[in-house]
């Protein structure tokens, strides 16, 4: 049966149809209050001017009117809203209501004050995703700011929660945080990477993040007497305290890091036939294994929670421990299943560190730990991350050496140098990876600009590659066929306007092709280093030619060259680590420590081979130059030239 209500004016546009798709049967005379469209703060509001009648099930209800559409069809297409158990599926202005209309009077109440701009704002800034969550207070604060900017009348937090659930289906609510300081989070939703709300959160909450710890339960917690901030948390919806603002910021940043990283296994110390000092026993060594692992686990938890400032306290606590675990301002309680009081006195710790096998074991553990921290903080060097997270990581890296040196100031100099050498490699890796990430974001904009790509291709075609090859061949000794193939592949990839990820795949393939003939060979690290030198030299010759020709796209090429050089370094670093069975942190630590150049990561016979032969048999396949650069003295190559 079809009912047309002509007395209702300015309620809904004539092209909007409400079609009941359920099996319910309605009798005539079921009088309901009509809802009229209000273009200001409300989308549906009670109207006393007219009424509507519910038609029997399966009938089509057409409402006449001339007001503009309540919700633009283009902004709501494909959005399914769960309203009172009866989903409303919108498509091209038609709303299909599954189930009877008996509950619609109350089911639409939470959207009665939500403007179309608010619905579109939610769709533009948020998206569903597995394994992530956002504090309810953060979403509501964003909504309040949106209403303030658009001069809208905001709904209360409960009504906004219903609106969120109607727009994003399947959201769950979880209570996250330590006991007494937990907060409700929406699980399964996050900010879109390109949302301007990312920068809003970065600008307003970054300093708070650096000042207070996040209230999320770690495996190892600071003692209660050391941090009274845990009792000051509020359950209000606004970030009224620094820790609340910091918690929201950290929660937001955690979607960019790998919070699921499992703590790595540590090897056992290899004492061999070394005789321990009289004051040191095997029980002391086992105790050190226990407390050092607990210390490293606490360090990992702090980093996962982005509590960078607490690292200094952890190090001061561990390296200046007293006879009792309860002493000291930052002592750590024992974890479940481990004995209380598992803390070594400082004098015992100093004696243990003087033992060479123990110091070497600690160094290996540090390599494993710091590599895990790098993979947690920067799981993908090319993925866009907020600038404040990048800056926080760089500030963290800048402070590491000073924190550790201060914590170990009473230890022997050899112990300090060993520990600081590893943490220096860790800090340098963080700086390089964050710089690489910054270059990747800048280059991404260039690679997505069609006009810039066309200009780059035009300028590149003017480069005299034959002349470049002639000048570079004497230094690089590269096979001409290999160089020509790389040139053609580069131009083709540029012409195809490939994305940054496609360029990364191409660079990875170049490294694979060049180094595959050295796989399993002791000369692999050396060949990898030589490839980096040749790649850098050859690319610098191309940039020089572009500069001399005053190429219009020189700036774009310079940026791309910086990115590709850094990414090549990143790829080669990981290939060498894989070939040697070490971590990338250990690989770079060996390069930074000139006193350790004779260790396993670098082939011990490099210098003797360079002096004893004019041509390395492995050099011809990669194009080894006759004039070689020795590792410890850069003047050799200049003298040879």
UniProtKB/TrEMBL annotation:
PROSITE patterns: RFX_DBD. It holds the Pfam family RFX1_trans_act. Transmembrane segments: none annotated. Residues 118-193 form the RFX-type winged-helix domain. Transcription factor that acts as a key regulator of spermatogenesis. Acts by regulating expression of genes required for the haploid phase during spermiogenesis, such as genes required for cilium assembly and function. Recognizes and binds the X-box, a regulatory motif with DNA sequence 5'-GTNRCC(0-3N)RGYAAC-3' present on promoters. Probably activates transcription of the testis-specific histone gene H1-6. PANTHER family: DNA-BINDING PROTEIN RFX2, RFX TRANSCRIPTION FACTOR FAMILY. It is found in: Cytoplasm; Nucleus. This is DNA-binding protein RFX2. Residues 227-250 have a biased composition (Low complexity). InterPro entries: DNA-bd_RFX (IPR003150), RFX-like (IPR039779), RFX1-4/6/8-like_BCD (IPR057321), RFX1_trans_act (IPR007668), WH-like_DNA-bd_sf (IPR036388), WH_DNA-bd_sf (IPR036390). GO terms for molecular function: DNA binding; DNA-binding transcription factor activity. Its main location: cytoplasm. The keyword Acetylation does not apply. One of its GO terms (biological process) is spermatogenesis. Residues 608-634 have a biased composition (Basic and acidic residues). Coiled coil: none annotated. Homodimer; probably only forms homodimers in testis. Heterodimer; heterodimerizes with RFX1 and RFX3. Keywords: Cilium biogenesis/degradation, Cytoplasm, Differentiation, DNA-binding, Nucleus, Spermatogenesis, Transcription, Transcription regulation. Residues 211-250, 608-641 are annotated as: Disordered. GO terms for cellular component: cytoplasm; nucleus.
